[in-house]
Amino acid sequence: MPTITLVLVILAALFTFVLAAVVVGREAHRLDALAPRVVYVEEQAVAFVAERLPAETQARLTLDELAQLLTFHLRWLNTKGLQPDHVIDRRQDISTTVVVEGDDVTAYLIGEAERNGVEVLDDIDVVHVVDAHQQYFDAIGAVGPLAGEIDG
User: Fold this and answer.
1) What is the rounded CA–CA span in Å between residue 78 and residue 72?
2) Which of 65, 64, 49, 59 is nearest to 110 (CA)?
3) Angle formed at CA 39 by CA 91 and CA 107, multiple of 5 degrees
4) What's the pLDDT tens digit per position in 13-28?
5) CA 36 to mean position of chain CA atoms
6) Which of 30, 45, 102, 144 is most buried by its number of CB atoms within 10 A?
């Protein structure tokens, strides 16, 4: 009798291990297919960008104006499909390469700033803001590879 008990215990342990391996493997595969969760925190983004702006740009922009420029940038990204809605547990299904030109976003931000009464004194300020904002996106893991880094 003790031999049968020992065999049943070994079979139960083996079955438990196989079941656990299958479940863990399935979940790992499912999570690998999902886009990573990236959290954009506005206050953190404003502070991050403000710290990386040149002194001249910092002197010309208030934090409120900077926050508005970042909001305009996010809106522009959304119109380009780079900030999609409903991204939680979304499969990584990007099938086309999207190239973002710096001149396009700069022109858009300057136009939005003028329409909304944000005093942007120099175009280079907008370029610095966009560059620092891109650094924030990179820091939180929200950007893909640069165009030169893509194989193909």
Assistant:
1) 10
2) 65
3) 95
4) 999 999 999 888 888 8
5) 8
6) 45
